[in-house]
């Protein structure tokens, strides 16, 4: 997008009131005074200050960390349920006041205070002032500014709006002072040659700094056509021309406007301007979100055959995959082969009792993951030899049925209903490094089984601990209720919501015996299956209400999210000396399995 920013000095010297200020902006935007605008001696090609030099321009923000445009990598986009429908005011009216060629683009100026945009997750109402275009050359080289998964469209249209009540100067100093709606324009062979795009392009002119003013019989909606306005991406960025102010809440619509390629060719031909787009900029720490209606690409892998190219027997074919290795997880733990290891002592848990440590809950499309606040929760001891930072925990489950079994690990060929994986990273390593280190990650796996419903509801673990029935560890069902309530807010794949309820990991685990566990060297259980995990699978299972467990497959809509067990090869499984708990009924011994887990969504 582009909008002209007049230099502050020129404003400072004039005692402009609000309205005059606005008119000055509009005047400048005609291009007549373009020479005096900050950074006016910039260009896209053929001058001293091409895009790579823009950061050096006086007063420029072009070297900043939230610049635009960007390449939208859809596999990293997250759905944001707050990106609801837009409200557009007077988009159907004939509001184009002038069309000008300012030497950088063609800009259509709108009647003042007529057109407005709100909703769409924007925090305010924005007043639309102009729209303009970016394009390639007459040989049909594409010229959109944003890209989608590396694809550049032939053109892009930017509709620019200022937060209502702000001057341009105020808006450019405000982190979301400007809202730009970006539309990709796609070239078709057979598009309409006589519609509004014909009318618009018939007004293009080559004379720089000239302005045509007739009664343009075109509305914004005429140009947008039938693009689905509920499908869009959002991120925070900048103006795409100097001074590149980092003041823009960007909306990039998913569907392009289809325009006949001969009409697209008129932009470079009739204006004499070619390749007027800025190269894509680094995303840095930013997250791109998508409205709930926006289709995001399915992940290339899945657990079964039905909806992806790589089911679990083909994961080893994925690029960068370790899934065909010899220390893979999960495994079937054959208890009689487990070797007792006295070094497997008690764990030390830091902040497992922190009721505010869970930052957000997200639906990855393969699992439900609770992401923890950074550098808060830790685990050490347990024979690990290092301090590990807890990153997240997530779940594996089966189908919507009381009989369903969906744990990843098995114990003596028994599968449990669910498994919870608490994923920890060696505190002294960065995640990338940890993924390449044999003990870079430590995952704590807990099997989950149905609680005895006669005593489950609302019980606190301490109450039950008094009686200490050996075969029934209990957890705080209130915590599980709070957690599973969030599932309804993350129906959409890759949606994420903040967790504000007070839930600690200790609440979820209850009084399960954490001194009795199995230990082996393994891998992540999802691609890329890095062989970087020291596995701890606890013998005793966590007990949760069956109805709450079933919410996982019901609310996410997917089931049987567990990887089949992998060959042990020459690995040894170690075991603590202690059994799951004090001697108890035989059923208890069945529970003694361990769990492990760890799926991982590494985009933490
Ligand atoms: C958003 O707009 C779409 C299509 O215009 C409509 O089907 C949907 O009901 C709207 N959603 C809301 C929440 O208004
Ligand atoms: C939209 O156009 C109508 C008709 O010209 C006008 O009365 C109204 O003020 C406009 N809406 C806004 C928000 O400016
Ligand atoms: C873009 O146009 C081409 C050629 O007409 C067409 O095949 C393609 O489907 C269009 N792309 C989109 C996203 O509409
Ligand atoms: C082209 O656009 C004109 C004006 O909008 C319309 O009357 C005509 O039916 C359209 N033709 C086609 C083939 O879509
Ligand atoms: C404006 O365009 C519409 C079709 O898009 C047409 O029906 C109408 O007559 C035009 N008005 C003028 C003044 O040209
Ligand atoms: C995975 O897909 C292959 C080829 O389509 C098929 O032969 C195999 O049975 C599938 N495996 C699973 C676990 O679905
Ligand atoms: C979630 O929390 C973060 C701060 O941790 C905040 O910036 C963000 O706006 C919150 N998101 C929602 C949807 O409330
Ligand atoms: C895991 O591997 C390391 C070295 O490769 C070894 O020292 C350690 O004993 C192994 N641990 C288990 C539980 O097998």
From TrEMBL:
* Alpha-carbonic anhydrase domain sequence ranges: 40-292, 299-577
Q: Which InterPro entries does the protein's record reference?
A: CA_dom (IPR001148), CA_dom_sf (IPR036398), Carbonic_anhydrase_a-class (IPR023561), Carbonic_anhydrase_a-class_CS (IPR018338)
Where composition is biased (Polar residues), the residues are 455-476
Task: Report residue spans for region: Disordered.
Answer: 455-477
- Catalytic reaction annotation: hydrogencarbonate + H(+) = CO2 + H2O
In short, the EC number is 4.2.1.1
- Which GO CC annotations does the UniProt entry carry? plasma membrane
Spell out the Pfam families in the cross-references. Carb_anhydrase
Transmembrane residues, as ranges?
Answer: 582-602
In alphabetical order, the GO MF annotations are: carbonate dehydratase activity; zinc ion binding
SMART domains the UniProt entry points to: Carb_anhydrase
Q: What does this protein do?
A: Reversible hydration of carbon dioxide.
Family from the record: Belongs to the alpha-carbonic anhydrase family.
What PANTHER family does the record point to?
Answer: CARBONIC ANHYDRASE
What this protein is called in its record is Carbonic anhydrase
